[in-house]
Amino acid sequence: MRLRITHDTRYRYEPPVLTALHMAYLTPPATRRQHRLDARLQVLPAPLSVTESLDIYRNTRSFFEIASPHGELFVRASSLVETRPPEPVESSQSWDAVRDSFVYHVGAEWHPVAEFIYPSHHVHPGEAFADYARPSFAPGRPLIDAARELMQRVHQDFTYTSRSTEINTPAIQALEQRRGVCQDFSHVMLACLRSLGLPARYVSGYLLTHPPAGQPRLVGSDASHAWVAVFLPDVAARHDGHGWYDLDPTNRRDGWGTPGEDFVRLAVGRDYADVSPIRGVIHGGASHQLEVGVTVEPCAAASLAEAPPLPIAPLR
Question: Whole-model pTM?
Answer without folding.
Answer: 0.93
